[in-house]
Amino acid sequence: QVQLVESGGGSVHTGGSLRLACTASGDIFEIYDMGWYRQSPGKQRELVAVFTSSGSTNYADSVKGRFTISRDNALNTVYLQMNSLKPEDTAVYYCNADGVDDSYRYLEDIWGQGTLVTVSS
After folding, report:
1. Residue 16 CB contacts under 8 Å (≥ 6 apart), including other chains
2. DSSP 61
3. C-beta atoms surrounding 88 within 10 Å
């Protein structure tokens, strides 16, 4: 069993900053890609940023220049530094990953439970 746990959500004013963290634990052999999605009520879950196992990154157009994704492989942790936050960034942010467990089985789509980010005017 592999689990993802997010932390770092909270409430800030427009222009503020938050740093999210997501840590994988359990029967892990190797984590491949790690990324962040977000979802607000009535909307589909959307990609925010991804950090691949090869070191490349991708961002949604709406967060480019404001958010930075980083990763510490030794800690099985991915971070999302969010600066210049806007009310439109308000959502539940979910961590996502794939990889292989200790039995060499591929884990295709692992999700955390989410952490709430609220940005007020």
Report:
1. 85, 119
2. G
3. 11
Q: Which residues of 24-53 are buried (b: 16+ CB within 10 A; e: fewer)?
A: beeebeebebbbbbbeeeeeeeeebbbbee
How far from 72 is each of 8, 41, 59, 109, CA to CA, in Å? Answer: 16, 31, 18, 20
Q: What is the pLDDT of residues 38-84, one digit of tens each?
A: 999 889 999 999 999 999 999 999 999 999 999 999 999 999 999 99
51/71 Cα distance (integer angstroms): 7
Residue 24 forms beta bridges with which residues?
4
